[in-house]
């Protein structure tokens, strides 16, 4: 859990509603596949039940992964930089200095808006710094954006 | 027209010859292709009327192209101000562009073959921005383009302020001309050049060329074999496609020669000057502190000759990256050191030559490098010995490659952001990989498979060093501190 936690860092986990949003999308997808499989199984007989059961097991397994991933997703604001942590199996921490931020995006789709979460994306001059925080509660996202831009202006350096 | 002494402050068009050069560039290839196709089609002679129609068609088409190019030229205007270069253009869709000089990354004077023949050049002003942020002014007389470049650089460097302060307060006009005199006179001190013989040698001693030779031998022998087995077999198809393959690779080799022939690097008050090109020439000026990252590389074939190649990232260069990202196409170790010194005069290390040598060919923990532990052999059976990082006062060095010797140099104040990542196998072995994010370009520094504790410490230290680096970095107006 705390593989990268330098002293003085408090990680703020993203909202668990992100897991809800992802699970909804995932189960809609599974349902689309499972419906025809169920129809086939009920008409064709016992051997065909393998198909929907496999789909169900797959759905449960991926759901577990989604929950684990969301619980690993967190961010931390420090004096000079923002850290974003992501991933369980392949895990990654991105450190973005405030002075390097070119602009900040806050975006939310219909589902995210319904759940009251948003995605905060940080842009630097580098295409490599893929620093985004998904699933930030909406008010917190607005506050975060404002804090980030204020700090960015205060510490802005040239390229 | 007399030689200009100053870049225009009012809206000005490029030279009137521009539409013709633009049209000519596009037309020549089309015309050659059409005539060639025509000649091939009608081996039979006596098709004079057809040829006439073709010629007329090309003439009319050419007139239309020139006409459109002319209209485009009429509405394409530029001017320079104290803080920015302005450009407006577009026939139907108007576009206004403003390149802020405090965001200036590089200024290039480019001469494509056709423009060069007639003594014209394109000025490209690269600023840090999103996609397509370049202000391209073409075509100008070479002298005009050079004056424009010098003045843009002088304004961007903050030199103007100094000139105005030195002049009498009521003598505003004199101070401006003084600036311009100074701008024109920024002298260029040559540091190194690449002889043509060595460049051609480097092109022949490359894997591309080895592959070509191998391929030609393979095809040649198989064709001979086929002819022996079955004399009636038609080999024209095989031979033809092989020829096309060889020609396309030859085009790659030619492009390298064309881009880098006559490579010269020098240093002036307004930055690093690089000039190169055989038919199309390019003179680049990169102000101090604009180089974001460097990659120094030696292919296995070059090891005996001790040749090195250096590529770099500059923030403004986005399209045509290959053409502009070379600091040294090929050169011996000493030249590579000179080139590094050109970009980073102070490496922040008491023994820069020793450290760089270790980065070039060293292994293990010599000279203060933090090496990848031996358990990382599972990822890199060969190069794990070479993998290592070292931070000097001013830059981060990342070393890798056992067969291809390679290392990266990233000045601390140019680090955009950092990432540390770890996969499942790395987690089991307590290893981690560090990415250093630089601006868009050909250099992408990664330090693979470090010990986890080393990696975490490095991220922490690097974040701190980058912070300190940004505090003392070269000011955006780099001459300001000197001239005040």
Notes on the protein architecture:
The complex is a heterodimer of chains A (159) and B (484). Chain A has two domains: 17-69; 74-157, PH-domain like. A four-stranded antiparallel beta sheet of chain A has the order 1-2-3-4. In chain A, strands 5-6-7 form a three-stranded antiparallel beta sheet. Chain A has helices at 17-44, 50-72, 110-115, 138-155; strands at 12-13, 74-77, 81-86, 91-97, 103-107, 117-123, 131-137. The mean pLDDT of chain A is 88. With 159 residues, chain A is an alpha+beta fold. Chain A is 47% helix and 24% strand. Chain A has four helices and seven strands, in the order βααββββαββα. In chain B, the strands form four sheets. Chain B has a seven-stranded antiparallel beta sheet with strand order 7-6-5-11-10-9-8, sandwiched between helices. Chain B has three domains: 12-191, Roll (PH-domain like); 196-256; 288-483, no CATH class. Chain B is built from 15 helices and 21 strands. Chain B is an alpha+beta fold and 484 residues long. Chain B has helices at residues 18-41, 48-75, 113-117, 142-157, 159-166, 172-184, 196-204, 207-229, 236-260, 321-324, 333-343, 352-361, 424-428, 452-472, 480-483, and strands at 12-13, 77-80, 84-89, 95-100, 104-111, 120-127, 135-141, 188-193, 264-268, 271-276, 281-286, 291-298, 307-314, 326-332, 370-371, 388-391, 395-400, 405-411, 417-422, 431-437, 446-451. The radius of gyration of chain B is 27 Å and the shape is globular. Chain B is 43% helix and 26% strand. Chains A and B meet through strand 4 of A and strand 19 and helix 14 of B. Strand 4 (91-97) of chain A pairs antiparallel with strand 19 of chain B.
Strand segment count of chain A: 7
- Classify the secondary structure makeup of chain A into a structural class: alpha+beta
Report mean pLDDT of chain A, rounded to a whole number: 88
* Overall morphology of chain A: elongated
> How many H/I helical runs of chain A?
4
Largest sheet of chain B: 7 strands, antiparallel
Rounded to the nearest angstrom, the distance between the terminal CA atoms of chain B is 37 Å
Q: For the terminal residues of chain A, how far apart are their CA atoms?
A: 34 Å
The tally of helices of chain B reads 15
- Give helix % range of chain A: 40-55%
Largest interface: A-B, 29 and 36 residues
What is the CATH topology descriptor of the largest domain in chain A? PH-domain like
């Amino acid at each position: 859990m705390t593989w990268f936690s330098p002293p003085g860092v408090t990680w703020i986990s993203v909202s668990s509603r992100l897991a809800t949003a992802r699970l909804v999308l995932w189960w809609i997808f599974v349902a689309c596949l499972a419906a025809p499989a169920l129809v086939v199984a009920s008409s064709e007989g016992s051997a065909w039940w393998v198909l929907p059961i496999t789909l169900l097991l797959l759905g449960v397994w991926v759901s577990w992964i989604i929950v684990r991933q969301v619980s690993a997703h967190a961010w931390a604001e420090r004096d000079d930089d923002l850290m974003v942590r992501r991933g369980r199996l392949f895990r990654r921490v991105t450190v973005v200095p405030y002075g390097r931020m070119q602009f900040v995006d806050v975006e939310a789709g219909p589902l995210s808006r319904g759940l009251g979460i948003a995605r905060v994306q940080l842009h630097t001059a580098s295409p490599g710094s893929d620093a985004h925080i998904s699933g930030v509660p909406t008010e917190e996202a607005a506050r975060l954006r404002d804090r980030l831009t204020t700090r960015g202006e205060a510490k802005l350096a040239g390229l | 027209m007399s030689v200009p002494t100053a870049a225009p402050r009012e809206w000005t068009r490029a030279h009137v010859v521009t539409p013709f050069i633009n049209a000519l560039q596009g037309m020549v290839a089309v015309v050659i292709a059409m005539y060639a196709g025509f000649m091939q089609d009608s081996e039979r002679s006596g098709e004079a009327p057809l040829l006439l129609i073709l010629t007329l068609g090309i003439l009319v088409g050419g007139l239309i192209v020139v006409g459109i190019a002319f209209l485009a030229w009429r509405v394409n205007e530029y001017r320079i101000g104290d803080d920015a270069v302005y450009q407006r253009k577009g026939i139907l869709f108007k576009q206004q562009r403003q390149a802020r000089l405090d965001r200036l990354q590089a200024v290039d004077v480019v001469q494509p073959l056709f423009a060069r023949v007639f003594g014209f050049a394109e000025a490209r002003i690269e600023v840090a921005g999103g996609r397509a942020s370049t202000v391209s002014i073409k075509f100008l007389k070479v002298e005009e383009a050079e004056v424009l470049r010098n003045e843009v650089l002088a304004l961007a460097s903050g030199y103007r302020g100094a000139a105005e302060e030195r002049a009498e307060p009521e003598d505003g006009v004199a101070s401006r001309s003084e600036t311009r005199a100074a701008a024109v006179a920024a002298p260029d001190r040559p540091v190194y050049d690449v002889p043509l013989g060595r460049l051609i040698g480097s092109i022949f001693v490359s894997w591309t060329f080895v592959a070509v030779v191998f391929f030609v031998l393979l095809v040649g022998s198989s064709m001979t074999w086929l002819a022996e087995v079955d004399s009636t077999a038609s080999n024209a198809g095989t031979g033809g496609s092989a020829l096309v393959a060889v020609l396309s690779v030859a085009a790659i080799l030619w492009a390298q020669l064309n881009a880098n022939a006559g490579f010269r690097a020098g240093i002036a008050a307004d930055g690093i000057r690089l000039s190169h090109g055989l038919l199309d020439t390019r003179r680049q000026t990169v102000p101090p502190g604009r180089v974001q990252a460097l990659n120094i590389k030696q292919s296995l074939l070059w090891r005996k000759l001790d040749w090195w190649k250096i590529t770099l990232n500059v923030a403004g260069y986005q399209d045509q990256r290959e053409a502009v990202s070379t600091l040294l196409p090929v050169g011996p170790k000493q030249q590579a050191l000179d080139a590094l010194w050109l970009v980073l005069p102070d490496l922040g290390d008491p023994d820069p030559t020793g450290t760089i040598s270790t980065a070039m060919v060293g292994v293990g923990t010599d000279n203060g490098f933090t090496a990848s532990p031996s358990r990382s052999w599972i990822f890199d059976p060969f190069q794990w010995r070479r993998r290592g990082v070292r931070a000097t006062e001013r830059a981060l060095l990342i070393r890798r490659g056992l067969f291809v010797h390679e290392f990266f140099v990233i000045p601390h104040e140019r680090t955009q952001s950092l990432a540390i990542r770890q996969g499942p196998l790395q987690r089991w072995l307590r290893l981690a990989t560090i990415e250093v994010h630089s601006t868009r370009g050909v250099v992408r520094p990664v330090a693979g498979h470090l010990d986890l504790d080393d990696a975490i410490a490095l991220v922490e230290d690097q974040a701190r060093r980058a912070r300190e680096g940004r505090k003392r970095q070269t000011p955006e107006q780099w001459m300001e501190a000197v001239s005040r």
